[in-house]
Amino acid sequence: MLMDLSFAAIAIMVLLGVLLDMRLGEATRWHPLVGFGNLAIRLERILNTGSHRFKRGGLAWLLIVLPFVVLTWGLTFWLARFDMLIAFAVHALLLYFCLGLRSLRDHTLPIAHALMDDDLPQARILTARIVSRDTTQAEDSDLAKAGVESLLENGNDAVFGTLFWFVLAGGPGAVLFRLANTLDAMWGYRTSRFNDFGCAAARIDDALNFIPARLTALSYALLGNTRLAWQCWRTQAAAWSSPNAGPVMSAGAGALNISVGGAAIYYGEVEQRPPLGSGPLASGKDIARAWRLVALTTALWVAVICLISVAGAFHA
Fold it and tell me: Where does the sequence pass through the membrane (predicted)?
């Protein structure tokens, strides 16, 4: 927990950050993560050359992440010495900028609506905006799987992991997690260009996500078909390439009683991914069900944090 803040203050800041995200959504102009992404693109072009690319990737991660984390830590530390209310507001604002709950809803529910309206061309266009796989020839089931998988995995990456690190380290913790996750999404590919350079970014993200991912998987299981979610998590997660996405997506698919995974086209090549979940293949309506699962899990996490704050107040 934040050493100098009460449980109640942390709960209020979490609640405020989530409400701001759901009310305002992503900033349409001058979003900090967009600016960070642009800097990451430029730095990668400079350093991802020649030999020793693993070391260069680690150096790039330090050069671009640490200044932002130190800056936000220094700002909140300095403000706390003069005006705690302003410091609280800055912590909540940092959480808002790092959360992506409403963004998940705004990017995935239109896919569900397009699929349910049998508008396959529009569904392909919308899905291509949120996944890296090729959707030009994708069928309804392919697009539905992509939407559900994106919701389940990014529920952890864009929401629950951020909340976890905010509770541990406030605004700077949320910033650290989201920047690390952003670099993993940009550099953590097993391609000839990024296999060495992006290795450090991928491993750091794996480490920061280890506990949040399993808490997310547990939360999905509690709020859905618990028995099936646990069974899928236990038997399927290890086969997935990501040590954190495996538990999250297998438990989430099991909780929803649907199947995802399987073949997908990346960069012109068909990739056979392990199946996850159990039951019928995901359909358009399951994207909306996956969104509800993520939203309910968010409510659960906020409620638990608030309950802990109440318990802490009684013991103070």
Answer: 59-78, 85-104, 158-180, 293-314
